[in-house]
């Protein structure tokens, strides 16, 4: 029988990836656009924190000219332009102590759409903008680590926000060498080289351990209160944001006949690095509450039919109708070349299959060692997710439960949002979890004072609550274990993601969730 032709391994540079800096650009991001034509953007970017604080940003932006983004010649210029437009637009839409703006003026909307097209991205704030293209080196010849990085811009003007981005930038930098190692490991598996593969996996394990160490540094200089109340609201997009005053999303003036767009906001779930690790180790994510049954058919735990991806190009999975979870959906928001790289990687990913096959055969010393190192790699990805869950608990769930220290949390009440909630409740369609989140934050602001109605509207995690992939909808009837407090619905999603990682081990260790379930039973 003729041997099946294997697809070539990807050449990193063809996907805008460096073997040294990974998904981060090799050169430092531009700190200013060189063409004076773009001076209006640069000047606005320089003072937008002050304008926002003084509630004058919208007025200022409304007077800006509509510039032609086609004049952004290089990739570096396009990324700088995109970063500026992401920050100005999110500041414009969410405002400060202002109602959310439903219409983005042409001066931002038109060039934003144009430059997003050039980068094969979406006109909405993304991980790429604020993490990958928003840093500079303090000492030019120094490393890309937390002792040598600064941001180019923040929405809140706070050092906490800078740290939040920079920890993630440092994670991207630390993880960069893993990409070449993954490709070498795939080649070793093709060559049936057990010892070579084991060595490569040992290197990968060390890098993932380093990622966990950098992740833990988030706690050092990013204050959870500042993050939750002052930073996170600005990262939100406009998908499922009815309660924040954007039931239809945002209209981009001068783009697509002014149609509303609903786009999710920025999230490190858009990090191509973490996706690459999942693909390399065969970690499969499913919609929350969803588990493929033994016959291979798909259904959601709540009985709903599986939801096909709205962005088939963004998902790498070959299956015709495969339910897409939030993590896969996030590929839609990555730069085009990185998304394509993940698709290519999925097509050639063979490490898990190779180790599984070896594990089913003769258990030589080499095979035992291979299995152990493989499982240790997967375990480290799981540990990364464990630490991440602790982080989300502190930075989101606990902050939402405590409520703001001033009654409105720094945001304007949205009367029509409250009206809509009432209407939804009347129709029996209210997102109970979102409502309970709002109630929870309203009733516990730590001052004994009852906040004004609608004051808790700006919880960007509603992107999650309302997502069609069903974080809030996956609960079994009568099971209210995780309902009732702000943010808690995130946790099942993240736990499942962690448990799916654990399940990728060759010799599985019981997950915490599984242990709890068996104890309860
Ligand atoms: C204060 C720090 C952080 C908070 C509060 C936080 C919060 C969240 C939340 C709420 C989600 C759910 C999806 C969403 O709303 O976007 C999420 C997902 C995710 N975050 Fe973070 N995050 C933090 C830091 C990080 C960092 C530094 C990374 C590193 C790359 C990261 C990687 C991810 C990934 C990969 C997901 C998708 C879920 C998964 O793969 O398990 N996060 N994060």
TrEMBL record:
- One Pfam family it belongs to: IDO
Q: What ranges does the record list as Polar residues composition bias?
A: 417-430, 510-521
Tell me the InterPro entries matching this sequence: Indolamine_dOase, Trp/Indoleamine_2_3_dOase-like
State the source organism's domain of life: Eukaryota
Q: What molecular functions are annotated in GO for this chain? A: heme binding; indoleamine 2,3-dioxygenase activity; metal ion binding
- Family in the record: Belongs to the indoleamine 2,3-dioxygenase family.
Designated name of the protein: Indoleamine 2,3-dioxygenase
- Which species does the entry assign this protein to? Linnemannia schmuckeri
């Amino acid at each position: 029988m003729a041997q099946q032709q294997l697809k070539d391994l990807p050449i990193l540079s063809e996907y805008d990836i460096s073997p040294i800096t990974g998904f981060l650009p090799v050169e430092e991001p531009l700190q200013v656009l060189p063409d004076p034509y773009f001076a209006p953007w640069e000047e606005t970017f320089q003072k937008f924190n002050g304008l926002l604080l003084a509630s004058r940003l919208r007025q200022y932006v409304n007077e800006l000219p509509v510039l032609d983004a086609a004049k952004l010649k290089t990739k570096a210029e396009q990324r700088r332009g995109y970063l500026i437009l992401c920050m100005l637009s999110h500041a414009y839409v969410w405002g400060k102590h202002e109602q959310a703006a439903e219409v983005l003026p042409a001066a931002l909307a038109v060039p934003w759409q144009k430059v997003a097209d050039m980068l094969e991205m979406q006109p909405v704030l993304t991980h790429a903008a604020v993490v990958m293209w928003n840093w500079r080196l303090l000492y030019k010849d120094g490393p890309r680590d937390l002792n040598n990085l600064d941001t180019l811009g923040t929405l809140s003007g706070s050092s906490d926000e800078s740290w939040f981005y920079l920890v993630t930038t440092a994670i991207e930098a630390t993880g960069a060498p893993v990409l070449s190692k993954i490709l070498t490991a795939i080649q070793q598996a093709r060559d049936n080289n057990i010892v070579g593969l084991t060595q490569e996996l040992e290197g990968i394990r060390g890098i993932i351990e380093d990622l966990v160490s950098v992740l833990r540094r988030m706690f050092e200089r990013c204050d959870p209160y500042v993050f939750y109340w002052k930073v996170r609201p600005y990262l939100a997009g406009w998908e499922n944001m009815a309660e924040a005053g954007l039931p239809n999303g945002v209209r981009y003036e001068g783009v697509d006949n002014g149609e509303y767009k609903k786009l999710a906001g920025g999230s490190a779930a858009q990090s191509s690095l973490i996706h690459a690790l999942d693909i390399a180790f065969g970690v499969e994510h499913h919609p929350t509450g969803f588990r493929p049954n033994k016959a291979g058919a798909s259904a959601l735990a709540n009985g709903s039919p599986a939801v096909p991806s709205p962005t088939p190009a963004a998902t790498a999975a070959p299956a015709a109708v495969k339910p897409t979870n939030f993590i896969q959906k996030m590929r839609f928001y990555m730069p085009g070349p990185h998304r394509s790289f993940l698709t290519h990687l999925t097509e050639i990913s063979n490490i898990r299959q190779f180790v599984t096959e070896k594990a089913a055969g003769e258990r030589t010393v080499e095979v035992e060692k291979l299995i152990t190192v493989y499982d240790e790699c997967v375990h480290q990805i799981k540990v990364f997710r464990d630490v991440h869950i602790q982080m989300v608990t502190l930075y989101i769930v606990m902050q939402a439960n405590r409520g703001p220290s001033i009654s409105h949390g720094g945001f304007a009440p949205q009367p029509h949002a409250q009206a809509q909630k009432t209407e939804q409740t009347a129709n029996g369609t209210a997102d109970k979890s979102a409502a309970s989140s709002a109630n929870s934050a309203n009733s516990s602001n730590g001052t004994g004072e009852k906040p004004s109605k609608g004051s808790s509207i700006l919880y960007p995690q509603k992107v999650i609550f309302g997502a069609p992939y069903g974080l809030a909808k996956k609960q079994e009837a009568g099971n209210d274990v995780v309902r009732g407090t702000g943010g808690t619905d995130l946790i099942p999603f993240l736990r499942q993601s962690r448990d799916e990682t654990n399940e990728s081990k060759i010799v599985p260790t019981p997950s915490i969730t599984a242990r709890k379930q068996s104890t309860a039973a």
